[in-house]
Amino acid sequence: MVEHPNVLWFKEIGRDDVGTVGGKNASLGELTTYLSGAGIRVPNGFAITAHAHRHYLDSNDLVGRIAAEISRLRGGAPLAEVGTAIRSLFERAAMPDDLAAAITDAYHLLGSESRAMTVDVAVRTSAAEDLAEGALELPQESFLNVSGPGELLAAVQRCFAAQFTDRAIKHREDRGVDHLDVALSVGVQRMVRSDLAGAGVMSSIEKNSGFPGTVVIHAGWGLGETVVTRQIDPDEYTVFKPMLSDERYTPIIAKTRGSKEHKAIYVGSGGTRIVDTTDGERAACVLTDPEILTLARWATAVEEHYGVPMAMEWAKDGRTGELFLVEAYPAAVQSRTTPAQLHSYRLTDTGDRLVSGVAIGESIATGRVCVLNSPDEIDRFTDGAILVTKTTDPDWEPIMERAAAIVTDRGDRSSHTAIVSSELGVTAIVGTGTATAALGGGDAVTVSCAEGDTGHVYRGTLRYDRHEINLSDLPATRTEVLLNLANPAAALRWWRLPADGIGLARLETIVADHVKVHPMALLRIEQLAPVARDQVEQLSQGYDEPAEYFVEQLASGIAKIAASRWPAPVIVRTSDFKTNEYARLIGGARFEPAEENPMLGWRGASRYDSDGYRDGFALECRALRRVRRDMGLTNVVVMIPFCRTTEEADRVLELMRSEGLERGKDGLEIYVMAEVPSNILLAEQFAERFDGFSIGSNDLTQLILGVDRDSAALAGLFDETNPAVTQSIRHLITTAHALGRKVGLCGQRPSDDPEFARFLVRAGIDSISVTPDSFLAVRRNVAAAETEIAAEDSLEWAD
């Protein structure tokens, strides 16, 4: 090998060669050399080295002329003018003969592997800053479907010129990087015929929250450029990493079918073009479950090898059915929140909602709307304004950096807007559909992403709270402090909180927010009115049977919540809608009676063994069984709400057993809500049937005192500290503990009232479950109560 080779094969390089071949090529070499043993396939190829790039610059006397143009830029010349002038220098330059020969020889050798005179290749730039800057990685150029030596040499020359796009120039100027110090390399890699199958990207970490326990895969039909450049709404698959090594499980905790309206295909030997996908392609998943798991295992192996979260591009060859990794680099984790510090946002005002879309992050921002159609309108933008546009690409980033918030018509969580806004820490809502038409320039608005998966833009400047949550000085407690969570996205958002598990995950919230359809409507679709039937058929399109839509969506929501706390217990309460709430679901009105007092009506356990809902409850059980048995998330504890009698309890437990959820089998625990006075009075009998109790203090107070908890006129009588309530709680704890059963309480009162927390600790409560924004207050209240009680007990012992 010569001292400074122009070309190096992937098998000759590794991660230590970033200065020679750049981050992307070094990573491909590392994968090729060290991870083939993990079954990872990487298409063969070679790197045109940084030495070759400098040789090209020197041979064409470009260094001095480029430096002169940069001096003009620093003297005040427009960036666009300087960039155009530098790139024109490359257009007039010639490839040195020795470099052209080295590239051509390597290309022919690559083709000889398949005994072909020509071979289709991908040509990509690989700058030395890629791995060094990680989250600030600067995308460069890619040329796909390059065929023949002539096309290859032209593509390499265009890659060299890509070092001086306007954005690349600004990127380095902003960071004080000398433009001619960047070691630019070019990778040449055999193309995978994904035009006949599919391709996409994946990350070994959940980028939006920084949750490390999942691999997230995005997939589209055809070549990967539509996914990489976010031109389509791709499929999204989420895999729980801790279960990947156990062949008993299929830990795909979420599958979302994207619309995938378009795909990129080859056009002869001249390039690629975008075409519409078929109805069948849009309705189908790009990858099978085994393929999803294979890619997830590869992502995990790559992450373990590098020791940092990684992003990867993958492709499937439609001729052979083989999967390949075609690129790997450090993931730009969107959440920059440190483990020791979080922020909580909460609107304290109400206002008119103007538009809604996908919330990126969890923050809130206010400002005046600035609607722009093009990044060329940057002069119209004022720092701190709300950027509203159809969509963004890298050219928008100088404006995005200055915005208080960003709202777009198009996009999803994998879009350019979503990724870059999260990297910048800017509040963003994407995919609103109508923001550019609905929001007026100059109007004051509030952009809120603090209300779950859906973000809202409100008219005017609304008040909101922003709390800093510091996790570095939390006191230890004997009493467990758990979280109340029902939103799967929120579960991942709060994974850093050092809670002891989840004490209440409301299944009905997942149904309302993610499933949206009444389960009986999916089972009795023929009984629905035409409008409801059309809605159900559209939502369940692509499923073998409509009911499978309910099971998969519900299982996915439960699994995300359970994964966020693995292996700590996650108590999932089966549905506790009231009839008026069930009726609001799609198709629900057909199956729900009108009740004068739904709070005391057909709810909770009474529904599960009734003719009107028994089959719906079976779907809930199927979803829970899938999470525990198929995905392996055995930390899920099932809880039955509003169980009035022991006879109801027996019937529900038998139904669950018939659906594969048998108490004690495979470690399954089943709890009951303690919210009806009969649960207290018959605590011993309920304890024989259940593994634990969770006190629903609102309903329990309501029913013990006979006070409607929603009545403003009786608000002064609704008191969870009333002796009738506290004596009931104390009696339940004492009775349950005597029989070896745990007791928890889920409610807001312990965070608002330190004395109530002290009472619960003194009574011996095992756990207290609260909303995430109350976690710190409750933890400190509990710790203080435990310290006071210990001191009192010590004094009593001394006396």
Plain-language structure description:
This protein is α/β, with parallel strands linked by helices and 799 residues long. It contains 30 helices and 30 strands. The strands form six sheets. It has an eight-stranded parallel β-barrel, surrounded by six helices. It has a seven-stranded mixed β-barrel with strand order 15-19-18-17-16-20-21. Strands 9-8-7-6-12-13 form a six-stranded antiparallel beta sheet. Helix 16 (507-515) packs across helix 19 and helix 29 crosses helix 30. The longest helix has 24 residues, at 775-798. The protein is elongated, with a radius of gyration of 30 Å. The N and C termini lie far apart (87 Å). Mean pLDDT is 90; it is low at 130-139 and 335-340.
